[in-house]
Write a structure and sequence with these properties.
By secondary structure, the protein is mostly beta strands. It is built from no helices and 22 strands. A 7-stranded mixed beta sheet has the order 1-20-17-22-15-13-14, with no helix packed on it. Strands 2-3-4-11-6-9-12 form a 7-stranded antiparallel beta sheet, with no helix packed on it.
Amino acid sequence: MKTLIHKAESRGHADHGWLNSYHTFSFAGYHDPERMHFGVLRVLNDDTVDGGMGFDTHPHNNMEIVSIPLEGDLEHKDSMGNVTIIKKGDIQVMSAGTGVYHSEYNKNADLPVKFLQIWIFPNKKNVTPRYDQKSLNPANRKNRLQQILSNDPNDDGVWIYQNAWFYLGDFDNELSVAHSLHSNANGIYAFILEGAFEINGTDLAKRDGIGITECSQITIHSKMDKSSILLMEVPMQLTP
């Protein structure tokens, strides 16, 4: 088993006034050659956007883009004709494929919006762009892991063009759960949203991250009440 630990304070940081963003991996003005990606997980941004502000229309291609709201309401518009609001409890995915334009704005003028922006390298390029959004039942992740993303359109949550699986879990203090990986070719990246956990013997606090490879199973153990975690199981080999 190999582990890679990213403490919260070691992340890249950009404060644009209207946008406060923390980057687990190299992004925009933050570049660290040791932190370019974790397998096919390319971007993990922890964003806070001021009231009424947001990202103007911009392009993407050949990337799986996942948004997980943590607080507030995020308005999405894209060149496929989608106009939607995503909020805490939702998960949004966009397969950029051959190319798509989109914008994201804080729907509320007086409250911030907080969300995770995640990019995954796809295993199939130049697909027709697609959009999906699902509302999740938070009761289904109380003291267990709730699958929110996979590679199968018939599975729970949203799906992407990649052999990846995402899970959310909300835990009371001193509870343990094991997760078995789907493939030996995969690694798992855990990101602590709230509270504290011990993962395979490593203590982690809020906004810490840990990447684990060359293992078939991990065990997470909550160390505080109201502890929340995001698990991202992804292939470690980049698709040519």
